[in-house]
Amino acid sequence: MAGNRPFGVTLVAIIAWLNGLWQILVGIFSILPGGTSIWAGPFIIVFGILTIIVSFGLFGGRNWARILTAILFALNLLGALTLLFGGQFWQGIGGAILPLIGLILLFSQKANAFFRS
């Protein structure tokens, strides 16, 4: 990429990487004895690995990674809205904050110029 990566894009990439790591840990703990779901665990692990791969794409300024991250954040927002309107107000608000900030940062003027270069 020509030009420097904006701080907002770096921040989103770090958040995505940490989120992928968290998903892998959740997936591992869910398949361990006493875990919540032996069936969902492997899918959560794969999703976490894919999220980390996408985060590396963001670090590298790849537009495909920005698009996939935006899709993931939009899905997270939908999940947060279901919590919000399902009677879990604070969980919904909490679940919406990072994806909303991420979307704003991914499509800021500086980020748009960075991904176009």
Can you walk me through this structure?
With 117 residues, the chain is mainly α. The protein has one domain. It contains five helices and no strands. The longest helix is centred in the first third of the chain and has 25 residues. The chain is flat. Keywords: Membrane, Transmembrane, Transmembrane helix.
Compute the number of helices: 5
Proportion of beta-strand residues: under 5%
Element order, helices and strands? Answer: HHHHH
N→C terminal distance: 6 Å
Provide the gyration radius in Å.
Answer: 15 Å
Helix content bin: over 70%
> What does the largest sheet look like?
none
Coarse structural class: mainly alpha
Morphology:
flat
Task: Provide tags for this entry.
117 residues, mainly alpha, 5 helices, flat, transmembrane, transmembrane helix
Which helices and strands appear, and what pairs or packs with what?
Blueprint: H1 7-31, H2 40-59, H3 63-85, H4 89-106, H5 109-116
Brief summary of the model shown:
The protein has helices spanning 7-31, 40-59, 63-85, 89-106, 109-116. It has 117 residues and is an all-alpha fold.
